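Hello again, I could really use a second opinion on something today. For a while now I've been wondering how a particular protein folds. Please have a think about how the structure follows from the sequence. Here's the protein in full, and shout if anything looks odd to you:

***
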Amino acid sequence: MRLVVVSAGLSVPSSTRLLADRLAAATAGQTSAEVRVIELRDLAVEIAHTFTSGFPAPPLADAFAAVAEADGLIVVTPVFSASYSGLFKSFFDALSVTDEDALAGKPVLIGATGGTARHSLVLDHALRPLFAYLKAVVVPTGVYAASEDWGAEGLDGRTARAAGELAALMTGLSSAARPGPRRDSYEEVVPFEQRLAALRPAG
């Protein structure tokens, strides 16, 4: 089983990479998945060239193949101007140009980091729509980490919950645990003729 992590952090050390590593460790612990991390900062030039040349250079093509072949994906971006970073968006734009179905049906855990909790809605107004458009299956819990979240209560719980949801999708547990089709209560209605027959005296 393969778990690929896409981190769009730019600095070293990077809080975005730190969040990505925590999510990966929590998920791998429940799936025994082999983890590969893709640092977009190392591919920035190749991503830009892809838009002008029309095809990815070998390092970027290798990253695209890893993402397309993954059983699960963790994506984490820093927040720039109240949204995902341009490098993060460009990577997935270039990927979808190369293979528009690369993420179709793939479980994806979304994460973001920022300086303030006021940007936490970036998960739902930017990241979730992007991956829904790319036909991915986005896990219900996204993880946002502001500066004050590091070392505080709450982040570990959100990380564990999101990792559990991704692991369930990767291993197929969610479909096994999913309830069956809703029972139609009208199928259990006793026909009126049968009710009348039951009222008639025996003999």
Notes: The radius of gyration is 23 Å. Residues 174-180 have pLDDT under 50 and may be disordered.
